[in-house]
Design a protein that fits this description.
FAD/NAD(P)-binding domain; Elongation Factor Tu (Ef-tu), domain 3; 6-stranded antiparallel β-sheet; 17 strands; about 30% helix
Amino acid sequence: MTQSGAVTVIGGGLAGSEAAWQLAEAGIPVVLKEMRPLKQTPAHKTDGLAELVCSNSLRSDDFSHNAVGLLHEEMRRCGSLIMRCADETAVPAGGALAVDRVKFSKAVQTALENHPNVTVKREEVVDLPSVADGAVIMATGPLTSDALAEKIKALTGTESLHFFDAIAPIVETDSVDMTTAWKQTRYDKGDGDDYINCPLTREQYDAFVDALLAGEKVAFKDWEKQTPYFEGCLPVEVMAERGRDTLAFGPMKPVGLTDPRTGKRPYAVVQLRKENRQGTLLNLVGFQTKLTYGEQKRVFSTIPGLEHAVFARLGGIHRNTFLRSPVVLDSFLRLKARPNIRFAGQITGCEGYVESAAVGLMAGVFCAAEQTGKTPVQPPETTALGAMLRHITVNAEDDLFQPMNINFGLFPPIGPVEKKKKLRGADKKAALAERALADLDVWRKQTHG
């Protein structure tokens, strides 16, 4: 049982720790439940809260020209425990923010254990809380236990939860060379604006397949090895291994398309499809991959029209558990089927340490508002926090929803009133960041006083 009036936070990773801190700082009693060390996951090595299981880097700390750096700064301004501890335990890493992972975890755990409004309990939760349990934040991460995952599926529907993360690369729309690529739907169905097509000749196709097959691949982690490929989402390089023309008859088939420059059908095409409703991001259709990140940039940049593409997200295939959040969560991260439960962290479909903590921060702020009788307020979509939230809950296409790192492609463009000339590159990023921090400060006054 949870103490009367307390909010329960389930999961002591970055998201759960941040959510608990935001609630506690708002004067709300919190019971933070973490199953380790009673039950370990395949990824964790310690029983420490906010353990970093992979890299010790929180990526770029440049808030003027990098979206994750901007998210760092926004979180700092919102009193983030994760960012405070990261700054306190930072190690030299050039322009990145990297931490001593042992000291970082210890700092987070010490802060929470010493907070008068936080009670840390080591116990496994195997069932979804009921309405009678009051406000709950679920931050169980990408390796949510099978028992709990089955309960989530039972409540929300079998199609609401994904266990196999097949990700195709995503590029920023305005980085595609439209003097080479063109817009057309196969056989001109629909409004003709649904796909962008990048054409390849036979020679270009053969060179692409050779590069794909020779590219360095990422090995599965131990807990992923038993996760089988689905025939419907095979890695693009696995398809290529089945025969040289497999891709030309699969995701790169050119049927129903005519290159307006030649008036002919190309030998093969790479199709790009809108990833979000704003149309600022494009998905490489059928290009889920196990190529390393460096190889993806090298190989996929050889595709005509993508020579200078800016990759908002690179591809991958790995074991992951995440909600189909645009369908099952509302705009304040509440489970539509049981609104006393909020979800936070990677299970919502964000990707990365910082993004996970950021969603935990928002879940904590929203829950704290409700617990004190206030109406929660979303951060503006022009902020990194708001852009991440809107991607999870509103802007992503339901059928294409996949985990995403924060990137400037998620932000609404600078409007014509806000700019006097077309902004590109570093100037565009700086303008987006300046707008974000100004709008964040307005939101902070509304929510933090």
